[in-house]
Fold this sequence. Notes:
With about 425 residues, the protein is α+β, with helices and mostly antiparallel strands.
Amino acid sequence: MPQKYLSIQDAMQQGSGTVSIRGWVHRERGSNKLKFVVLRDSSNTIQCVFERSNFEKEWDDIDHLQVETSITMTGEIKKDARAPSGYEVQVKKFEIIGKSENYPISKDLSPEFLLDNRHLWLRSTRMQAILKIRSTIFAAIHEYFRSVGFYEYHSPIFQAVQAEGGSTLFHVDYFGKKDVFLAQTWQLYAEPAIFSLEKIYTISPSFRAERSKTSRHLTEYWHAEMEMAWSTFKEIQDQGESLIKHVMKKVLENHEKDLKVLERDPAKLLPTVKKPFVRMTYTDALKVLKDKCKIRVQWGKDLRTIEEEELTKLYDVPVIVTHYPKKVKAFYMVEDPKNPEVVEGCDFLAPESHGEIIGGSQREHDLEKLKARLVEQGEDPKNYEFYLDTRRYGSVPHGGFGLGVERIIKWICGLDNIKDAIPFPRTMERYKP
Ligand code: ATP
Ligand code: MG
């Protein structure tokens, strides 16, 4: 019969008796009589003890066990208050599966070195905690949208129209054709589908040629987007708020230990689940900035990072800023029926200066107005014919939003830089390994 291995977590659950476990050497120390190995698997770590008197023949191998060696073992597990995770295994039998020599990662290495060795750094306790939380966040997004009746839908990555401005487009050499880009958003290919499915969502990579070096921009990021027919602007905001609350709840329920590894205080995150988000118009946000932060922003200018940061420092929940000036937002956002100078667009700003996590809007559904906005923004409506058909045949009020998954990971995990929110970050300067 093949050996039945337990995860380290399950072995500790069992707590006594014989267990077989497998994993990688996380730490090792020893004398010429005893060897202590902290073994790591995806579930936990545990201290394992090798006694020389049991392994006289194999002692040389044991003595030379190095960090990241993969190993299987069988032994007696017992509670031990002195062991780092409270349990210890007395090893009775073991097999080295893959040797490891001079593992290049030790303590106190520079962030650049760790990024160059990202393929190995993924094994660190820190990255493991982030990647587990990331997995829960993806699952929670799927769960949320399916629970409120959205269909999962897929748009192309190769696209021939742009929605978020030419300056961040990645051009692709498509068999010699040059008017092809990588998706910045699914939106223009999602809107046609709401006439079929009404409520749709996706989680897919988006690509933006971001030239600025900030702590919150990647060139390739995972974008959770939704689009719904018959929506009101308020419903779009409500959906965004409920989604974030659900994601946060799932992380808090399942990741106490991982948040501890990241030294992230859950008390800072709890208000997002418990309290309503703050909602204010752009115009009111300028007033708050002036009165409470002594920052003056001229009406009509987009909010800059520094202003968003100061604003969100005032609250312990996300702030939804609505009704931005038309000029600073994308062509597809609908004018406010009460004031055509502003649009029904919203940005969700995360607390503690983590910046924008969601951008959303009610869409312009009038054909002529949409064409005029395209022309104003220097686009040729001819290139958008397929998209404009959405306004020709049974147009309906609709809207949607995009959530940057790594942005929400950065916030929830309390990361200084978005690069740690994704396994292999891509930025202007980094595309390897
Ligand atoms: P920002 O002002 O921060 O550049 P944006 O206005 O360009 O954001 P949108 O076009 O509204 O962002 O995109 C929707 C969401 O995608 C944003 O709210 C953000 O969470 C995320 N996002 C946008 N650009 C990036 C990026 N370069 N890297 C990671 N996430 C991003
Ligand atoms: Mg941007």
